[in-house]
């Protein structure tokens, strides 16, 4: 499966075309809209999220609530476009009109300067419109389709926030994935630890008050993946590497880890590798899951545990030093609106990109045209893995 996205942050809409989704998958706008709404929430979001009310239009590839096997086109309207028609070139600007025509002052931490040099844009709006994380809207829409595939195979995905602005959540949770998901849903910062939640919200308030921004760490857990998805046989078949790439592709994400991740550097092997057990009912299991569900680029059958680190939002009310590309004069940037923390929202994006990679790998490996064939192949594979 593959997908492309298109659309500017303040243009009329965002679009994704998704190819390779098997025929016969149940898919309704409500599956996607639920995910879009989750991405819009989260403490620390700015005023833009009060303007948008993301709703998907399914324009191709689905009839009577079921996928056809043909490309699926999904679009989401940018309501804010109505306020940006002139700036975006959809309406002429009168000569005497006060409209900010060009952005010549690059914001540190954004794609502005590098993108302008690369594409030769003297107006950096031509860069920021596309580098904006508004694009993650349709990635969440594509991820919702992937989640639907996983769900029909009994595979569940949940994401939550484990750190914001240096406040760490206690992550020793023994509840079911469903309970974990519900708790995250009920928390304004998508955090399971209610003590940490309060401190995280205070950290966001403090940062906002000081004109600053903060980042954090999100975790995605996936239960029910069959063993042996992905492969060690070629570097670009390693599914853990694809997950790391997917996490790193989210705007502002600067690191990814699987299982104990970077912590493995500090531990001896006896405290890292997961001992192998066997019982008649389940077949092979592991005593621990430090590997986060991966060995040799393949799933172990244990829960997939992926984390990603998000840097602080780059647009600050406390201005940072930059240079005007026309005058070459130094200036301190001033801004109109921004999120002060988008880590909770980004955890929903992280779920989507992880779901996409896992669903793609399954569809590629277990026959890729019809959903019922894939279901049967996965069922047989699970059975043979258990009896191996
Ligand atoms: C959900 C989400 C919302 C974001 N909101 C903002 C924002 O309001 N203001 C901002 O400056 N950056 C925001 N970002 C981050 C920027 O898009 C990102 O840092 C920038 O495009 C530069 O890319 P890079 O950080 O990946 O290098 C957001 C990121 C995500 C994932
Ligand atoms: C629009 C979204 O996020 C935007 C991501 C973003 C950025 O620079 O990445 C900047 C802000 O946009 P604006 O400049 O229009 O206020 C965020 O609101 C969204 O998540 O849907």
From TrEMBL:
Entries under PROSITE patterns matching the protein: CHORISMATE_SYNTHASE_1, CHORISMATE_SYNTHASE_2, CHORISMATE_SYNTHASE_3
Cofactor(s) for this UniProt protein: FMNH2
Protein source organism: Pseudalkalibacillus berkeleyi
Protein name: Chorismate synthase
InterPro entries tied to this protein: Chorismate_synth, Chorismate_synth_AroC_sf, Chorismate_synthase_CS
NCBIfam families: aroC (TIGR00033), PRK05382.1 (NF003793)
Family: Belongs to the chorismate synthase family.
Positions contributing to FMN binding: 130-132, 251-252, 296, 311-315, 337
Molecular function GO terms recorded: chorismate synthase activity
Binding site for NADP(+): 39, 45
Cross-referenced Pfam families: Chorismate_synt
Assembly: Homotetramer.
